[in-house]
Write a structure and sequence with these properties.
The structure holds 2 protein chains of 2 kinds. Chain A is an all-alpha fold. Helices cover 66% and strands 1% of the residues of chain A. Chain A contains 16 helices and 2 strands. Chain B is of the alpha+beta class. In chain B, 44% of the residues lie in helices and 16% in strands. In chain B, strand 1 and strand 2 form a beta hairpin. The chains are: A mainly alpha, B alpha+beta. Chains A and B meet through helix 4, helix 10, helix 11, helix 12 and helix 13 of A and helix 3, helix 4, strand 7 and strand 9 of B.
Chain lengths: 547, 371
């Protein structure tokens, strides 16, 4: 890959562009204080807003998880009632998926895609502002349901009908509205990203010259555009069932509770890839940088990403192996799910081969990226086990599944986000993150994440169902370890906040090319990146990439 | 199938070694042929993953130690290699095909519910299981029997904490038993790990599964699908007994059912109904309406000092017999027999200081059910 400006004058375009930009914008007074952030149409500022929002939500969702883990610390009900326990598991899932992981990736996309393709901003800056500001509205509404009579959503983040319709608390209508708003935000964000990537690449940059983060986000954006409307459809059907007397999912009225699950997972399975494909892109940028060697198999990475995205539409019913599908359907979804292991394997092999015969150093972004490769692969292995439909009759809805998806989401998606933050912080702030503290954050996170989630494999295999507030005595040791690990992991994340705050305020100065082996266009603009970059498009020179 | 197992023999030997150690860290081997097959698949795919993991992580960690920038490693230039890339696409496909073949065979077997010796209907309800032996006139509810004092930490926890019930499902060994599964309210999932049966019970659907148990014993499981506030408290206990023992048990249950049916026609005293009603209330009603009838509004209304309920006996009975559509209150016309309904209605009208003195007769309930 490695698109690159000619080495003799890499900073010329951007510095002049930046200078022009500053001069240009000095004319009209931009709003100050809160209005600056409410009205901003700048991709960097909106990117920062997304990232700060998702960090706050990460802690709120994390506190919910810690409430759950505190209750599960030992057998019996000590701290909270089962009703509140169910609200906590549900809100933890919803907040982490829709308010922490997804906006974090959108934030990174906002910041980095224009910089990586040499565009001055996103294609639709006002829409960009709108799609961000929908999020605080949506999630304030969602969180407010916890204080409503009857409590907040208590039916799991998958909200299966009829538990989420006929049997749901009165606040469910607000939950539906919140999800609608978040969905609109995602769709608008995705449209913006597609428009930016397809139209605003620097002259000379072909699709196959784009950095993988751009590629994976392009594919992710198409997934979002395809499936968020399905989510909107299914929650609208719930809304009708609850408030307008329809019976889409009510068997007593001729409806079909299984239809809910088909629709939900037709959205839900692509959704889990929405949360991992951009992570692949980040890791594919970081590993070559710190191995000082070009990414192995750039083209096959692109094709593998596209293959995973296409397959994601054909595997939804593997979440429903015990629902009572016909045999033919079970077989089809088992085979298609197993197939996903192939392109995913290609990616892992490519990363490992990139390392092979490289020149490797272990800066904080690299630590997180390497942990991603190992631990995401472990999550992939348990995913392959879950794909075996007969065995899934034992695994389904147990802690084995909880262990699986937390391995792909926490040391998977979230470690990749953290790797990306450490990687691009010098570009955002002009300072390197504090190395010692970042290492401390990394090692605490690694220990915490494995202590939390590895014992869950055993608890699940031994027979512990998920989403229970109390458990039989044979599961006590596993839960004890998980709870200790969860608190350790949770508290360790404060170090992350500390590193970010310190890095914004000061630290070792970073040059434009903050990392020796980094090759994409963002490293051609100064650090910190000025508010306006690439107002004159850079001329993109393909260096040694296969033409 | 056989030749494939021979191909997989080395892995199965290791799996066999592990079998002895299946002591609460791993999936149970179980007591049916299918559970053993599933365990075999589980261990095979596990060792496949371990092998791939050792290879991939081996190369990775070798590279991390060997090619360090700090040790002066110079990066190589290569960045693609078509034949290697084709190879590591093709080999996983072959491994997957190797896994898919035995998995398909097992799955086909699991779906073959034909020619069963006994049909048992399993009905999920918030939050208990109901078992009906079809064609045998035997049906009963199975509630968790772990006392709330243990859950609250006010009493020492027993060995089978949360995994014990008042009435276990009794099944004969060595006979093919077909399960027909449905639900009266939300989706539940009936799961007993030793039988390798996990099947959702879905309102409006009847799912099928089957089991043939090889060894007598007591097998425990839990509801596996989030079904509301007491999802964690609806365990399953299966007693697998010898076939003749099962026949004796079944005959006893039939006789008891007949006795109960005769009770419908006679006149019951208030004290008798109260005594009968209290355990029914505790097992069925208390999980929502709470131990002292105080309820948990807004979802679950209070029964104690509920003026509407005290004033209108017919309305009260109607709520229990027919349920309240659009709420969590189910119809108990087919779950409870007339004696139990009469007793629990009497109990709720006279407990907690209600003292209406109403002694509702089973015969009048039976009439309402027929209507």
């Amino acid at each position: 890959m490695a698109p690159k400006l000619p080495p003799q004058h890499p900073l010329q375009h951007s510095t002049t562009a930046a200078a022009d930009g500053q001069a240009d914008h000095a004319h009209h007074a931009s709003p100050k204080g809160i209005m600056r952030w409410l009205l901003t149409t700048n991709h960097k500022e909106i990117g920062s807003l997304y990232l700060i929002f998702s960090l706050i939500m990460f802690f709120i969702g994390g506190i919910f998880a810690l409430v759950v883990r505190a209750e599960l610390f030992q057998p019996g009900l000590q701290l909270i009632e089962p009703e509140f326990f169910n609200q906590m598991t549900t809100m933890h899932g919803l907040i982490m998926v829709f308010a922490a992981v997804m906006p974090a990736f959108t934030g990174l996309a906002n910041w980095m895609i224009p910089l990586q393709i040499g565009a001055p901003d996103m294609a639709l800056p006002r829409l960009n502002n709108f799609s961000f500001w929908l999020l605080p509205v949506a999630f304030t509404l969602l969180l407010s349901t916890l204080f409503m009579p009857g409590g907040g959503p208590n039916f799991g983040w998958t909200f299966y009908a009829p538990l989420s319709t006929t049997y749901a608390p009165p606040s469910t209508t607000f939950f539906i509205l919140a999800l609608h708003i978040a969905g609109v935000s995602s769709i608008l964000g995705a449209i913006n990203i597609v428009a930016t990537i397809l139209n605003m690449r620097a002259p000379g940059m072909r699709m196959m010259d784009m950095p993988l983060f751009v590629w994976t986000w392009l594919i992710t954006a198409f997934l979002l555009i395809a499936v968020m409307p399905v989510l909107a459809g299914v929650i609208t059907m719930m809304l009708m069932d609850i408030n307008f007397g329809t019976s889409f999912f009510d068997a007593a009225g001729g409806g079909d509770p299984v239809l809910f699950q088909h629709l939900f997972w037709f959205f839900g399975h692509p959704e889990v890839y929405i949360m991992i494909l951009p992570a692949f892109g980040i890791v594919s940028a970081i590993i070559p940088t710190f191995a000082r060697k070009r990414l192995f198999g750039y083209a096959s990475m692109v094709y593998a990403t596209a293959a995973i995205a296409l397959l994601s539409f054909l595997v939804w019913a593997h979440h429903m192996f015990v629902v009572g599908l016909p045999l033919a359907a079970e077989l089809f979804f088992m085979y298609s799910t197993m197939l996903i292991a192939v392109p995913t394997g290609v990616k892992v092999f490519n990363w490992v081969t990139t390392l092979f015969r490289g020149s490797i150093s272990f800066e904080p972004p690299m630590l997180f990226a390497l942990a991603f490769v190992v631990l995401f692969t472990i999550g992939g292995f348990s995913g392959l086990m879950l794909a075996i439909a007969p065995a899934d009759f034992q695994y389904h809805d147990t802690y084995f599944v909880v262990a699986h998806f937390h391995y792909v989401l926490v040391p998977g998606a979230i470690f990749a986000i953290m790797a990306g933050v450490y990687y691009w912080l010098p570009k955002w702030t002009g300072h390197y993150p504090h190395e010692r503290l970042a290492q401390c954050h990394f090692w605490c996170s690694i220990v915490g994440v494995n202590l939390t989630f590895f014992p869950m494999h055993f608890a699940g295999l031994a027979g512990m169902p998920r989403r229970i507030p109390d458990y039989a005595l044979q599961f006590a040791d596993f839960n004890l370890v998980s709870s200790i690990g969860a608190f350790f992991f949770g508290i360790s994340q404060l170090i992350f906040v500390l590193v970010i705050v310190l890095c914004v305020r000061g630290g070792r100065k970073a040059p434009a090319q903050a990392w020796e082996g980094a090759e994409d266009l963002e490293w051609s603009v100064p650090s910190p990146a000025p508010l306006h970059t690439f107002e004159t498009p850079p001329v993109f020179h393909r260096s040694h990439h296969g033409d | 199938m056989r030749s494939l197992w021979q191909w997989l023999l080395p892995t199965c030997v290791i799996a066999g070694a592990n079998q002895a150690q299946a002591n609460g860290w791993n999936m149970p081997v179980g007591v049916t042929d299918i559970s053993r097959d599933i365990y075999g698949l589980h261990m095979t795919i596990f060792w496949v993953c371990v092998a791939i993991g050792l290879l991939v992580f081996g190369v990775m960690f070798y590279s991390l130690f060997r090619y360090r920038h700090s040790k002066g490693a110079k990066a190589a230039e290569f960045h693609e290699h078509t034949s290697v890339e084709v190879l590591w696409t093709a080999i996983p496909v072959l491994i997957l095909v190797g896994m898919a073949v035995p998995a398909t065979a097992t799955l086909k077997n699991m779906y073959d519910t034909s020619e069963a010796d006994l049909d048992v209907m399993i009905i999920g309800q918030q939050w208990r299981w109901r078992y009906e032996y079809l064609g045998e006139d035997v049906a009963f509810n199975s509630n968790m029997s772990t006392p709330w004092e243990q859950i609250r930490g006010e009493a020492a926890r027993g060995e089978h904490y949360l995994l014990e019930v008042d009435e276990p499902l009794v099944l004969p060994i060595n006979r093919k038993i077909r399960f027909l599964m449905t639900s009266d309210d939300v989706i539940h999932s009936w799961w007993v790990p030793d039988l390798a049966v996990k099947q959702d019970t879905i309102p409006g659907f009847i799912n099928e599964n089957w089991v043939q148990i090889n060894e007598p014993g007591i097998y425990r499981g839990q509801c596996a699908e989030l079904c509301g506030v007491n999802h964690g408290f609806m365990p399953i206990v299966v007693h697998a007994v010898e076939e003749d023992e099962f026949e004796i048990w079944l005959a006893e249950r039939k006789e008891a059912a007949e006795q109960e049916a005769m009770g419908v026609d006679r006149e019951w005293e208030l004290d008798e109904l109260m005594a009968r009603g209290e355990p029914v209330y505790r097992a069925i009603c208390a999980s929502c309406h709470q131990a002292e009838g105080q309820g948990a509004p807004p979802a679950f209304p209070a029964l104690a000092n509920n003026a509407q309920l005290i004033d209108d006996l017919d309305w009260h009975i109607d709520r229990i017999v027919n349920g309240v559509s659009g709420t969590a209150m189910p119809a108990f016309r087919s779950t409870l027999n007339p004696v139990e309904i009469a007793a629990v209605v009497t109990y709720t009208r006279n407990a907690w200081g209600g003292d209406t003195g109403d002694a509702v007769q089973p015969a009048s309930i039976a009439e309402k059910i027929v209507q």
